[in-house]
Amino acid sequence: MEYQVSELEQGMRIDKYLMNKMNISRNKVQKIIQGGHVLVNEESVKNGYIIKINDLINIEYIEEEIHIKPELMDLNIVYEDDDIIVVNKDNGMVVHPAIGNNSGTLVNGLMAYSNSLSSKNGNFRLGIVHRIDAYTTGLLMVAKNDIAHDILAEQLAQKTVHRVYVALVWGIINNDTGTIDAPIGRDPKDRKKMVVTDINSKDAVTHFKVLERFKETTLIELRLETGRTHQIRVHMNYIGYPIVNDPVYGRKKLIDQTGQCLHAKELGFIHPKTKEYMEFNSELPPCFTNILSKFK
Question: What CATH number should be reported for the domain whose range is 66-158?
């Protein structure tokens, strides 16, 4: 469910706004907001948030009677202690439940794996501090308590988390390095997609370095300064080098059905309790290397 605030609607509290839009009680609206199911411009808000013109409001709300159940999964746990879990997410796995998809997600697996997960982002995002796309593989940090969650989230906000991705893109990139500094917002023509735009957007910065060039494609390393939805996929498509096998952005030529060649390879952050810097590295998964081998 999605709404965009008009000029006449701006200035209202979000709970009152949604109460009128959704035709439900204010108490129920407030529970939905407190549960982390309402995002304004991709960020969680509180009940007292005052809406502004062009605010994009997304409600990822699942009726209360639909419970998210723990599911036993073979999760690839890279590291774990009393405060954090680092998981290497498989291809095709959605990070958390949403409307129409309340099973088979990483959260379902985490609930079966651990009895201790942060609840800062609501019951449908237990432990989740940040996300990667379903068909992007690689490293994610998970918080096991709310204190750890707050500290890790602050590091993300301050842009101190070390995040390195590897991607295979269509085309030959001539420059050895480059920076893409272009704001990203919702595509007005297709609300499920993101696009580089100056309207209702947020700053987005991606740095890239060429690792290897092939006949039709280029293997690159990317470092994120910001963490916008679909950022790498949108930015690379914007400069004319879309991710290979991306079914949404750029070329529609698909090698197979495994998803885009994009892998969250490195993740580094300050441990929320010990204050020591930790860094993790993961190998490219078979779904990526199988496609890569076709171009070598």
Answer: 3.30.2350.10
Which residues, 6 or more positions from 63, have their beta carbon under 8 angstroms from its beta carbon? none
The Cα 289–Cα 51 span in angstroms is 46
pTM: 0.81
CA distances from 200 to 68, 94, 108, 208, 245 (A): 33, 26, 33, 25, 28
Which of 240, 232, 186, 211 shows the shortest CA–CA distance to 55?
186
Query: Can you list the residues of the chain whose pLDDT is less than 70?
Result: 61-66, 99-100
Q: What is the pLDDT of residues 48-61, one digit of tens each?
A: 999 998 888 988 76
The model's pLDDT over 195-228, given as tens digits with 9 standing for 90+, comes to: 999 887 889 999 999 999 999 999 999 999 888 9
Residue 63 contacts residue 224 (beta carbons within 8 Å) = no
Q: Which tokens sit at 219?
A: 């293997």
Domain 2-59, CATH class in plain words: alpha beta
φ/ψ of 159, rounded to 5, equals 65, 35
Instruction: Show the tokens assigned to 6.
Output: 């008009």
pLDDT number for residue 35: 79
Percent of the chain that is helix, strand, coil (3-state, to 5): 20, 30, 50
Tokens of 1: 């469910």
Catalytic residue numbers? 133
Answer positive or negative: Cα dihedral of 175, 176, 181, 182: positive
- Give the β-pairing of 137-143 and 262-270: parallel
Q: Are 257 and 55 in contact (CB under 8 A)?
A: no
Q: Where are the domains of the chain?
A: 2-59, 66-158, 164-264+289-295
Q: Please list the alpha-helical segments (H only) found in 23-105.
A: 26-34
Output the CATH code of domain 164-264+289-295. Answer: 3.30.2350.10
Q: Give CA–CA dist 127/117, Å, rounded.
A: 5
Q: CA angle 244-247-249, nearest 5°?
A: 75
